[in-house]
Amino acid sequence: MAKRSNRYNKAAELVDRTKTYGLDEAVNILKKFPAPKFDSTVTLSFALGVDPRKSDQMVRGSVALPHGTGKKVRVVVFATGDAAKAAEAAGADKVGMADLIKEVQGGFTDFDVAIATPDAMAEVRKIARVLGPRGLMPNPKTGTVTDDTAKAIDAVKAGRIDYKIDKNGNVSAAIGKGSFDEAKLVENAQALVDSIVKAKPASAKGNYIKAATVASSMNPGVKLDSSVYTAATA
């Protein structure tokens, strides 16, 4: 087992591993952790009772966090004509079509969100093998395939995040920074919980959210009491 730092060990002393916590209490504990030398990212993770191998049990979606993520979101847009001009005016970091696709094929993936117009998708699918594994493939369900590129850019830069279940049945997403106050972190976390609940597949049976944990970079996780989400999934 890797040796933990003194800072991590001091944080771990604040967490009772034998119990779970309400959302307010969990965030309060997280805010008491000794801070690293950078503004840590706070993440909310879920273990879901679905089978991601079945197409009708995939869980994915997007949610607008009330207070954003605290991160500068880098956005590229695959578009031409007026949609491209609108994207540039809205603050996209890079806009293009054939040239941008060629860049991605050459290894350029230094961005957080990719947006495309519907008529661009035929070309964008050529780089699905690059974008897909990184969670960057534009998708209508997350609002990243649209003719209104300016609106989509405004949404992601204002704090909209996308999430998708992994092959082990887990979902994890950033809900803010360690510098956020407790109220903002709690409200962002609740928004994500509500969205995950809403995304429950109709075919999912039994316990949908099996466990949830909130954590910040380089610190131990704090397990959440099931009351945070069971009422909404009943």
Automatic annotation (TrEMBL):
UniProt keyword annotation of Transcription regulation present: no
PANTHER family from the UniProt entry: 54S RIBOSOMAL PROTEIN L1, MITOCHONDRIAL, LARGE RIBOSOMAL SUBUNIT PROTEIN UL1M
Assembly with partners or alone: Part of the 50S ribosomal subunit.
Annotated organism of origin: Rubritalea spongiae
Summary of the function given for this chain in its UniProt record: Protein L1 is also a translational repressor protein, it controls the translation of the L11 operon by binding to its mRNA.
Name recorded for this polypeptide: Large ribosomal subunit protein uL1
GO CC annotations, alphabetized: ribosome
Record keywords: Repressor, Ribonucleoprotein, Ribosomal protein, RNA-binding, rRNA-binding, Translation regulation, tRNA-binding
Record family assignment: Belongs to the universal ribosomal protein uL1 family.
Top-level lineage group: Bacteria
